[in-house]
Design brief:
binds 2-acetamido-2-deoxy-beta-D-glucopyranose; Nuclear Transport Factor 2, Chain: A; 21% helix; six-stranded mixed β-sheet; alpha+beta; NTF2-like_dom_sf
Length: 174
């Protein structure tokens, strides 16, 4: 360690902005690799699985604290990690064993588009189908990733939720 006399220290702090910055700070963040895009897709989809999320800290390595999550079926976007946690831990009483997983993903530098599958089974709370009936639907997700942190800051989802309702014997008026 180098001891710096306090007068010099004061001078250094007053001129801190003029000091050369380490070159690593000015390196542009790398674009997403295929394996990162796949693993981010997989981790994002898994948060909707039955029983997967049990604490908010699980989201901290996946999304920014101000993350936006859009799904037109369910109204306005959720804003922020807390709201996302609440949405992702909501338990639909009509289904269980929910699994959401990527089928295929494509990406550019910072945005991932992923086609996914959803499988589940109906519970005995679904009045119009026998308990244990297999449920399946598909959807698409667009995930925007903050390159500096590799965290998702904007997610837009569109899915065949109407098929979920019809598979559960509900009437959907289109
Ligand atoms: C997030 O995505 C939505 C589309 O679903 C878009 O309208 C909005 O501008 C995006 N927000 C940001 C900050 O990129």
């Amino acid at each position: 360690m180098v001891l710096i006399p306090s007068a010099l220290l004061a001078l250094l702090s007053s001129t801190a902005l003029a000091l050369p910055q380490p070159t690593t700070d000015s390196k542009p963040a790398l674009c997403l690799s295929d394996s990162e895009a796949n693993s981010i897709s997989k981790s994002w989809l898994a948060i909707w699985d039955t029983g997967y999320l049990t604490k908010k800290s699980q989201l901290k390595n996946l999304v920014t604290k101000d993350v936006l999550s859009f799904d037109g079926t369910y109204g306005p976007p959720t804003v922020g990690l807390d709201a996302l946690y609440a949405a992702a831990t909501y338990v639909d009483p009509l289904v269980t064993n929910v699994l959401q997983y990527p089928e295929t993903a494509i990406h550019n530098c910072d945005t991932i588009s992923v086609r996914w599958g959803y499988s589940a089974v109906s519970t005995s709370n679904a009045p119009n189908v026998p308990a244990g009936t297999p449920i399946f639907l598909e959807g698409i997700e667009i995930l925007q990733v903050e390159l500096s942190s590799r965290l998702i800051f904007n997610a837009t989802s569109s899915a065949d939720w109407v098929l979920l309702a019809t598979q559960l014997g509900e009437t959907v008026n289109l």
